[in-house]
Write a structure and sequence with these properties.
heterodimer; A: MetI-like fold; 2 domains; 16 helices; globular; B: MetI-like fold; 2 strands
Chain lengths: ~325, ~280
Amino acid sequence: MNEVVEASRATALAAPAQGSFRLGRLGALVQRESVFSWLMLTPPVLFLLAFLGYPFFYGVYLSFFRREVAGPASFVGLGNFVTLSKDPIFWQSVGNTIKFTAVATLLKAAGGLGMALVMNQNFRMKALTRAMLLLPFIVPTVLSTVAWQWILDPGMGLFNRLLVVSGLATTGPSWLGTPTMAMVSIIMVNTWRGLPFFGISILAGLQTIPLELHESATIDGAGTWGRFRYVTLPSLLPVILIVTTFSIIFTFFDFQLVYVLTGGGPANSTHLMATYAYSLSMGAGQMGLGSAVALSMVPVLGLVLVLLTLYVRKD
Amino acid sequence: MVGELTWRRRLLGLWVPLAVFYVVALFPFTWMAATSLKTNAELYDPTAMPLAIRHPSLVHYIDLLRETNFLTWTANTMLVAVVATGISLLLGSMLAYPLARMRFRGAAMLAVTVAVTYLVPQTLLFVPMADLIGRLKLGNTLSAVMLTYPTLLVPFIAWLLMGYFKTVPKELEEQALIDGAGRFGAMTRVILPLCLPGFISAGIFAFTLAQNEFLYALLFLSRSSVRTVPIGVVGELIRGDAFYWGQLMAGALLGSIPVALIYSFFVKYYVAGLTAGAVKG
């Protein structure tokens, strides 16, 4: 009995010395989870509000004004969006963006799945191979795109030189010079750069599939295809979905690849919404109209985000 | 018989596709290197084999370093990437720590907001951002990109770090609180050190992204002395319609090497960061 009292008195005396009370009332307040949290959160939240939140809403505001770079702004309501709806180049850029995103994402997903399945076997120097195959994704996009521009050069570029040297053609195609080939080219370069991202992510997903699943499927009589169809693919679905969502967003809003490779040409045939927004606002100096093009991309972003949220909620 | 079968399977199922992936991934770099090492006479000789080098020459590299501000651009790129990564790691961990480990009102909403801002592309923001930087009188200063790159990096870093912060058991923190470390001490002395791999992943990722950035640099940096490598190479080595391919490829290769080098040292962490979202999500 005495011992217990002694012990509790000791803790009671020790507690203020060791615990938060030593820090005083202010200190004790800071030790509360919510106060501490918001003290920590305030600087990053303020930063993001100033440099992300403010520009976003200012962009929305700008889209309601006719505003040249030099000169006063005048309120035009939805005028900019009406102008865009009658602008054939705008609609062309919308079509291009959708085509570019859809084809490139499909190619990257299919190729990435293939790469992951190949890489998921046992072989020597696997780590080195993974590092090497990821290089296209690491190297600054603009620099590799400049190299591609040179690969696709109609006269002295690598592709056409190889075609001529091997005797497959007397003169190669004008890769960036005709509307169809230019679209093919930008999709090809985007796929080259983005495929390893799919490959490595899906590979990481593959490695989380327990071996027992494959073993029990084999015992149940599943062949290679059966195991792929009923074990591998369903287990990979969440990874593929997330990676595809990311890729759709980053491809849909891509700017630098097209800006460097074709500049949107020839005859606007590769203008994406991003490059068109840039050329309107920076090239032609129409900030309001450019903002309106950029904002027209929000519904797509919203749709993808809603679908993703619904999927995550379902789990 | 069985050995033969598996051998053929290995060949068709592994070595051939692997070789194809290797060639596709790496031939542009080979082409860059081959071009940068040839003299112009050999480069534009239609009878020469395109990928072979008969008379290697460093003339394009010498010209690049002598005639352009390439070294300045490289220094600018490094400085910007280091500062932007530092700011982003600091702000990102301040954002991630409470979200991952504390209970407070508004936590759920804030977490969703962070995820959404990560997916808001800069394409949406560049017009007003250009205006904002102009009004802050930051045009043609490195501060313009040092301040704007973290907007691209903080949400991602916060998201990545949250995953790492959550893995540290609550008991360790409680023990530190009982020992009188206080919340701040528990964070800096107990939990953050345990999450070092997360910081390396996030740092490497942010660093390569900052080196890669193009749009904001294009908008804010038009004077040669403040440019970064991507903007310098595209803006100054392509003069009008004339392409100096030898110099361009030398610049592209030299500009890629720092990123590739740093990446090769930390490839494990880079891959961990890259796949964290996909696998954990």
